[in-house]
């Protein structure tokens, strides 16, 4: 698998773990159980979001997610059903429950680490594993309290700070072990 594919899988699994740990109503199936169309579009999404200088918002990425799902034949349904291709989040961002909007912010925080992996690191397996570990930490530690806009911003900021800390750890790793091509 390519570096971007590995990073995309790590981001996906970290977000899936966060959904499970937080008791969210939807916990998607593992990466290995997703179909090729999903994996291909998700890798392309991660590559776009993790591009240096790219800036986005949870609302904007929810719209992109919805379009990708529409393109794969999904539609709105009260229950997520991968066979019927229905999903309750196929609504405008403003109509999502607070917990689902928060989930989108966590996803973007994980992408901050993915961007670091893409722009600052060579394709070393050890470094990819370090990123995977930190993605899970971000997803697990970013637990929202109360569901207000203020807590949403504070927790998103916390996740970004955690990603920045990850960059420091990656820098320490590179200083200790040097460049690995």
Structure explained in plain terms:
The longest helix has 29 residues, at 149-177. The protein is globular and about 40 Å long. By secondary structure, the protein is mainly alpha-helical. The chain has helices at 3-21, 36-49, 58-71, 98-120, 125-141, 149-177, and strands at residues 75-76, 86-87. It has six helices and two strands; from the N terminus they run H-H-H-E-E-H-H-H. The chain has a two-stranded parallel sheet with strand order 1-2. It is 64% helix and 2% strand. The protein has one domain (3-55, 98-177).
Attribute tags:
two-stranded parallel ribbon, globular, 6 helices, 181 residues
Would you kindly provide a brief summary of this structure?
The chain has 181 residues and is an all-alpha fold. It is built from 6 helices and 2 strands, in the order H-H-H-E-E-H-H-H.
Write the layout of secondary structure elements.
Layout: H1 3-21, H2 36-49, H3 58-71, E1 75-76, E2 86-87, H4 98-120, H5 125-141, H6 149-177
Parallel strand pairs: 1-2
Helix pairs in contact: 1-2, 1-4, 1-5, 3-4, 4-5, 4-6, 5-6
């Amino acid at each position: 698998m390519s570096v971007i594919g590995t990073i995309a899988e790590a981001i996906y699994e970290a977000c899936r773990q966060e959904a499970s740990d937080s008791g969210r109503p939807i916990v998607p199936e593992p990466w290995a159980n997703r179909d090729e169309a999903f994996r291909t579009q998700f890798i392309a999404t991660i590559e776009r979001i993790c591009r240096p200088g790219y800036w986005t918002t949870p609302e904007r990425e929810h719209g992109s997610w919805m379009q990708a799902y529409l393109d794969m034949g999904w539609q709105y349904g009260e229950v997520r059903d991968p066979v019927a291709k229905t999903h309750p989040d196929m609504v405008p961002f403003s109509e999502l429950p607070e917990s689902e909007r928060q989930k989108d912010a966590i996803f973007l925080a994980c992408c901050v680490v993915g961007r670091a992996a893409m722009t600052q690191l060579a394709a070393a397996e050890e470094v990819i594993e370090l990123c995977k570990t930190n993605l899970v930490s971000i997803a697990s530690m970013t637990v929202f309290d109360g569901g207000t806009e203020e807590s949403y911003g504070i927790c998103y900021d916390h996740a970004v700070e955690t990603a920045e800390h990850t960059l420091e750890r990656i820098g320490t790793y590179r200083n200790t072990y040097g460049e690995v091509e």
